[in-house]
Structures are given as C-alpha cells and as structure tokens.
Amino acid sequence: MDRRSFLVGASGAASALAGCADLVTPGEGGVAERDLPERPADLTPESVAAYVADYEEVRVHNRHAREGATEVTVDAVATFDRASGGDYFATAQHAGTVYEEQDGARSVGELYGRPVPYLVAPDRTLRLPVTRRRVAPGASDRPPDETASPPLGVRLCNVTDEPREFAVTVVRRSVGEESDAATTDATDADVAEVTGEEGDLVCSTTAALDPESAVELLAITDVRGSYRVTASMEDDGVTGQGRIEVGLPGADRAPNVDVVIDESGVSAWHLPSFEGI
Question: Are 136 and 220 in contact (CB under 8 A)?
Fold first, then answer.
C-alpha cells in the first residue's frame, strides 16, 4: 500500500472558497452560511484530502455563522491517511479568527481546532469527534538519546452506528533492555497471560467509543524501541482484533497507529506524518 502523505490546504488551488474572510452583508446582521462542498465523484488520495480540507473549513464557518458571527476567517488543512476498499480516511485541522458584535461592542476570538479524523466513502462523509486520553503521567526519565518525540499514541475509530469497547495492550518488543518508567511491574508470565506474548507490558487499558466517534490514547511511552499494539473487541460472542508492530520514533504526529472498527471488523494501520496548521 502506498503510504505517502497528501497534505492539502483549503486556501490552496483545490478550493476557491477556503481561507477567505466573509463580511457582513448590510441589513443581514451576520455572515451567511455556505454550502458544503460536493463529495468528489472520483475518490483518490489527492481529491479526498482537498475535499476534507474544504469540508472542515466550511463546517467551522457555518457553525460560527449560526451563532451570529459578523466576520469569520478560517483556514484548514487535511492529510490523506489511508484507503481500504471504497473507504478513504483523512485527518483535518483548522485555525482562524471570528468576530462578533453585541450591544455595539465588537469582540474577536481565535479559532484553533485539534486534528480530527474523517471517513469519506462514495455514499457518505463522516467526521469523527475525538475524545483524548493521556495514558502516561509524564515523560520517562531516560536520557534524550533513548527517547522520541512525539511519544507513542493510538487512535481508535468507530465508524459504525453502535457503541463499541476496545481492550488495548501495548507491549515493548525490544530484547535485553530493562523496562522504562512507564512500563508496569508485570513479569513476562503476566504479560503472556494478558497479551498472549512475552515482552514488557507498557499499557493495558479499555476505551469505550460512542457510535461514529474516536478516542485517542496519547503519550503511552516515549522510549525508543519496537512495540506491538493490540486492540480487541467482542460483539455477540465474536472477538475482533487488530494487531500491528510500530517503531518509535515513528510518524510525526500524536497518534502513530490507527485502529478502525467497521462493519467488516477490526483493522490496524500505521498513520503517516501530519503537518498541522
């Protein structure tokens, strides 16, 4: 699979609307809402990234227009993450400025959104709200040449219309090294009982996901090495599991791994680097 990262800014040639400032039309009292962009007829990494950046920008604009903003300036960027069958996944981020007037006084606020995942398919566009959890309490006490930034993170995406719960384990696969400060006190036998394999158990947790939503498990560990991430869920007595090996340092973004539950089951993927706005 081609893991290249396609980054598109909504203010670029892919969209003539994005990145513009909308001013008040006399007599209307606020900016008008825009039409959301049309989903591309031909879904490709480039067209999906451009579409998602445009969609994110217009969505944010419309939210503030409905709240009575008198001027909104928004820019958005998006990176294509991966494709599976007819489903295309991307990550978007926005920033900008919003102006409001109340009782003759004008106020200004800065807009800055954290990265958010999208699913684009021929028949739907899904923006997944994200809940973020920091797993480790802080950085390890290892010397700088043994650590990496950003630390290991896992993004869990539920693109179904039912709630799901994942059990997530992360095992450090490096041989002959002592466990870092973020590693539990579990023995190899304990790890094998929990994960079915030997190694240093770095993380064992659960995460509940609402329908069409995402959870990011951040700052799991910052110690360089090789890790195996396993995410399991059970549905009507049937267990689905996504498992992937990931090295640290890895992708230049907070979550390095994507785990997706859809109607076909659970899958795990590496995420490309993300150049935020």
Answer: yes
Q: What is the mean pLDDT of the chain?
A: 83
pLDDT at 14: 35
What parts of the chain have a pLDDT lower than 70?
Answer: 1-29, 103, 137-139, 174-198
pLDDT in tens, 48-95: 999 999 999 999 999 999 998 999 999 999 999 999 989 999 999 999
Q: What is the pTM of this model?
A: 0.81
Please check whether residue 230 is in contact with residue 169, taking contact to mean a CB–CB distance below 8 angstroms: yes
Q: Name the residue ranges covered by the structural domains of the chain.
A: 6-127, 130-270
Contact 232, 239 (CB under 8 A): yes
The tally of CA atoms less than 13 A away on the side-chain side of residue 257 is: 28
CB 219 within 8 A of CB 238: no
> How does DSSP assign 89-110, residue by residue?
EEEEEEEEEEEEEETTEEEEEE
How far apart are the C-alpha atoms of 216 and 274, rounded to whole Å?
Answer: 15
Secondary structure of residue 47 in the 3-state scheme: helix
- What residues form DSSP beta bridges with 162? none
**Third-level CATH fold of 130-270:** Immunoglobulin-like (2.60.40)
Q: How far is CA 158 from the centre of its chain?
A: 12
Could you tell me the two tokens for 117? 């995942």
Give me the phi and psi of 237, to 5 degrees please. Answer: 80, -5
Q: What is the dihedral of CA 15, 17, 18, 20, to 10 degrees?
A: 140
Contact 39, 79 (CB under 8 A): no
Structure tokens at 129: 């709200």
Torsion of CA 256, 257, 262, 267, to 10 degrees: 160
**CB distance 8 to 77 below 8 Å:** yes
